[in-house]
Each structure stands twice: as C-alpha cells, then as structure tokens.
Amino acid sequence: MTPSSSSATSTQHLRVEGGEIGFDVAGKGPLLLLVPGMGELRSSYRHLAPLLVAAGYRVATADLRGHGDSSAGFDAYGDVPTASDIAALIRHLGAPAVIVGNSMAAGAAVIVAAEHPELVSGLVLVGPFVRTPPNQSAMAALMFRMLMARPWAVAAWNAYLPTLYSGQKPADFEAYRATMIRALRRPGYARAFRLTTRTDHLDAERSLARVTAPALVVMGDADPDFADPAAEATWIAETLHGTAVMVEDAGHYPQSQRPERTADAILAFLREGVDRA
Q1: Are 57 and 27 a contacting pair, CB within 8 Å?
Q2: CA angle, 264 as apex, 260 and 269 as ends, to 5°?
C-alpha cells in the first residue's frame, strides 16, 4: 500500500511540469476534487470521501506536490504551484469541479477559481488559509519557520500535529499519523515539506475579489490556527459572498475529525448552491 492510497482505490499519477501528482478517483457524478493541507496526505479525506461518493459524486483526492504519492523533486512549492497542479488535475479529469481545499490548499483553490473560473463550479474551503491571519504576529511566523527548519522539521511536525486536531480526534488518528510521518521521512520529502512551510498567502488574498464561484467555508470551532475561528470563517465567507459553517468539537481538520457533520454541510451546499446553478 502506498502512503496515501486505500484498499478501495488505486493511485494514479498526472505528469505536470517538474514531477507527478498522485491522486485517486471513486464514484460517478459531478466532480469533486479534494486536496489536503501542508504536511497531510490525501487520506486525510478517508472518512469524508466515501460519504460524498455515496451521495452521488465522482470524488478525486490528490496529494500535494512533495507529499504522499506525489513526487518530491519539484523546484517550487506553496499556494501558487499547488493552484497550477489543481488546474491541471481538473483539466485531466474533466472540468468543471468543486474544489474542496483544506488549509493551504484552500488558498490554492481560491487562486484557481480567480484565474480559471471555467474550471471551478464551487469552492469548499476547510480550515482555510486564504490570507495571513490578522492576529498572527511576525514573531509567531518566525518561530514556526524556525520550528520547521532542518534537521528537525519532521520530528517537530509529528509533535505539533496533535495540537491541530484539538477537539474530537479520529479513532484511527495514531495509525494515520504514523503513516504520514513515514511518508515524510522518505528521501527528498522532508526537504519538500520544509519548502512548503515557507509559502505565504498573498496571492490567495489578492485573488479573493475575483472569485465568482459559489463558496462554502467549513471551520472547526476549536481550530488553533486562528485566534477567533468563527470571525475568520465569517470574514472569508462574506468576502466571497458565500456561507460559513462552524463544526463543533473540531480543530483544523473537520473532514477527518467530524466527517458526517462536514459531509452534511458540503452536501447541503452542493444541492442548494452548486447543483442548481
């Protein structure tokens, strides 16, 4: 079994400039593309994706470049390169798609929606970083950069990760965490992870005003990445003329912490805001 795959799906690869992106596809119906956050595997959607497939959607999950089943020899990482990969995947799979992006991938999804509106029928932004959080100090950003510097980046991420799962953890959290850390320890992947942590969200924030696709923000009410998760979710939703849903007892990863609640919010959005459009 590869780092991100499951017994129900098989890994495919799409060649893009500089390497390959690993992904899988299940189900039939309108296309949903699920992209995880920095340091995570596409199997962070392992509990959510089957619920969306059962509801009648074609669900693709993709690894970030330098993560999971994607290759780790790219020259660039972060929001803008991820946006390029997402656009290439949607073209490959058949546009348009609803992009479900977690954390950093939410910022990349916003860039795609702004630059290639014909590819995007909707946005679901989960625990989204679409700007530098307004209450984040320069010192905090510097400390995170130092924490994720070599040679201790993977060990630091392993120790830090449980704090991002504040609230209810998935029953299989420890097994998933071990798989993720093994994947990061392969040759070349720790370097890719370190480079990914250096991204900023300036391009995502500049793109917000140009997004016309329907948008849903899903935020864990205990997300420790934001001083006030509800305020950040509301600001993003209002900026995108969309809606926000707060997921109780969840941190930065409601897709795996509270998958049923997250699925309910996404499916309601798809029925009311996308499928009728």
Answers
A1: yes
A2: 150
